């Protein structure tokens, strides 16, 4: 169950990062509320995952899901640039996440 909590927490991290961008510095009410609600839910689910998963594993995977997810969302929805160096960085992050998961089994 901890891995499900961690995955959901990571997805919510993507949600709050995107909503924060849309909030324009917390000057828009709806995206600001979504940001705060997703942050709280993400942290709560991360805390549940940390009941059984090691700190280093849980936190690394949570931030990795958020980082790579925000990278992809930025490209798809915000028209952010895509180049070989950025893709390589994302591949390295995902490789690290896989190794972290395998090493904690």
Automatic annotation (TrEMBL):
Keywords assigned: Cell membrane, Membrane, Transmembrane, Transmembrane helix, Transport
Location(s) in or outside the cell: Cell membrane
Presence of the UniProt keyword Membrane in the record: yes
Residue intervals passing through the bilayer: 33-50, 57-78, 84-102
Family: Belongs to the drug/metabolite transporter (DMT) superfamily. Small multidrug resistance (SMR) (TC 2.A.7.1) family. Gdx/SugE subfamily.
This protein's name: Guanidinium exporter
Pfam families assigned to the protein according to its UniProt record, in alphabetical order: Multi_Drug_Res (PF00893)
Keyword Hydrolase part of the UniProt annotation: no
Species of the source: Stenotrophomonas nematodicola
Topology term for the membrane: Multi-pass membrane protein
């Amino acid at each position: 169950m901890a891995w499900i909590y961690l995955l959901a927490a990571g997805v919510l991290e993507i949600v709050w990062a995107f909503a924060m961008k849309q909030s324009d510095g917390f000057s828009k009410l709806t995206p600001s509320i979504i940001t705060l609600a997703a942050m709280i839910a993400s942290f709560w689910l991360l805390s549940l995952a940390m009941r059984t998963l090691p700190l280093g594993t849980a936190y690394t995977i949570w931030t990795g899901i958020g980082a790579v997810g925000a990278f992809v969302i930025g490209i798809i929805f915000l028209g952010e640039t895509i180049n070989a160096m950025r893709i390589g960085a994302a591949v390295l992050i995902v490789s690290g996440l896989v190794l972290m998961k395998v090493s904690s089994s």
